[in-house]
């Protein structure tokens, strides 16, 4: 009875230690995330404020405008205010959740971001699921059979695709499958998200969006999956010499069971961290792909804003991209702590 009584408080005390150890860890990561976000705000404001283009002349291009009218527009847009005053206004509006007003589209940046967020999440979400599934499967198989013909082919293809610029690969696929090269006819739409001549609802619309999604999604998958293959393959090879795998084989487990139950769960730790980090980067990395295929998401919105340049819109999308990367890095740190006992012990 006394041993049970003693065990109870000890268990509660151990749980309290774990909980109390997690809260300082989470607090430190949140503080680091806030500092990173503030630094990105400063960097983003400085970069966009120092752009050499004149947005007022671009906005009035093709219209007879006097110098007095140009000066009046600059005053209305706040471009004549001191840079420190513009920075304080920018930070204050950001903290209040106000991203400003687009000069080009004549509407709030928040509404523009909300309208374009769905297409970006559709493209990036689909590409992320496919690249993660394909990359981890190939990485596991290649690492477990390292040195085989399958491993050499998978590793070579991964390294080649990893080194290819995304925009270049996108243009090659666009010319090949949308324009048509030689005997290859035009098979897929060249750009956009849907065909305006078709019904914008029902299964016809779903199939139309899926056809437009193929090429931009394929471009992202071919570049991103290669990174998962490389990391997962290396992790599997590192785990293969571990003593616990020899013990599992000595117990009579099959090679497939040893791989699935023991090697893969431990080798997944670096890949899980990379997945969370890449989820944030994927959103911000959509600019080139969406620009190539005119996909109406946040990346293409950023590309349109760069033409002016529309400073409030550029700063707004920059905040969204930066926040997505910082949040995913924070989630990666938290998840990794739960998955790896060595981090919990620190």
TrEMBL record:
SUPFAM superfamilies: MetI-like. Residues 117-332 form the ABC transmembrane type-1 domain. The keyword Transmembrane applies. InterPro entries: BPD_transp_1_N, MetI-like, MetI-like_sf. It is a multi-pass membrane protein. Gene3D superfamilies: MetI-like (1.10.3720.10). Keywords: Cell membrane, Membrane, Transmembrane, Transmembrane helix, Transport. It is found in: Cell membrane. It comes from the Bacteria. The keyword Transport applies. PROSITE patterns: ABC_TM1. GO terms for biological process: transmembrane transport. The chain crosses the membrane at residues 30-51, 121-140, 161-184, 213-231, 267-293, 313-336. Belongs to the binding-protein-dependent transport system permease family. This is Peptide/nickel transport system permease protein.
